[in-house]
Amino acid sequence: NSEQNIKPGTVEGPVGNIIDGNINTMWHSKYNDREGGHDDRADPKDPFQVTFDLGKDTSFKSFSYTPRQKGVNGRINHYEIYVSQTMDELNQMIKDKKYKLKGDFMYADLHPIYVNFSSPQKGRYLALLSVDHDSYGTGADFSLYEDYSPLPYLEIRSTSFELDYYEFSQTETSEFLTFYYKSCTFDNIQY
Predict the structure, then answer these.
(1) Phi first, then psi: what are they for 127, rounded to 5°?
(2) Please, are residues 113 and 158 in contact by the beta-carbon 8 Å criterion?
(3) Are 131 and 80 in contact (CB under 8 A)?
């Protein structure tokens, strides 16, 4: 619903850059009037929305989002994902906030961020929304995967786990407090 320009082959701007396989190009929401882009949002605080027509019903279990490779403005921090069979259904799901997945991206670097759905998804249309944004939206790559993705970097807070027990030990020069947590499943992976 917003792009700085619509010229294919441009390094910054067109939404097609987010699926061109080149992380050195990027989609960027409209930020000025010099390049002929558009911003179809009714209010500047409305989410940025990138809608994908997959051409046919497609099954997938995970996705990745790669942030822009230079600069940080517009990085998607808070997202919602919607999946449907028709465009009308997709628009209604967005209106009713019936997302398939909602979360926050935790950046470790400029690498892709992989996210697993809690159950397999199937649909022709998918919408990625950037919510509670910094007034811009950007992305270098967005990809879908048929299988669950092993997560190369995952920050899990200890509050996500239930404490099982802890041990205290000491040496002549140090004291140690070790926490042991009960196992749990996070993003379809057992920890």
Answers:
(1) -120, 130
(2) no
(3) yes
Residue type at 22 in one-letter notation: N
Question: What one-letter code names the amino acid at 84?
Answer: S
Q: Which residue has the tokens 């996210």?
A: 115
Question: Rounded CA gap, 41 and 3, in Å?
Answer: 11
3-class SS at 2?
strand
- Rounded Cα distance, 6 and 68, in Å: 18
Question: What is the amino acid identity at position 103?
Answer: G
3-state SS assignment for residue 63: strand
List all residues 6 or more positions away from 96 whose beta carbon is below 8 Å from its beta carbon.
Answer: none
Burial of residue 41 (CB within 10 Å: 0-12, 13-18, 19+) is middle
Kindly state the tokens that stand for 97: 């906030």
- Residue 89's H or E segment, with its range, is helix 87-95
Per residue in 93-126, pLDDT (tens digit) is 999 999 999 999 888 788 899 899 999 999 999 9
- What's 155's DSSP letter? -
Question: Does residue 153 have a pLDDT over 60?
Answer: no
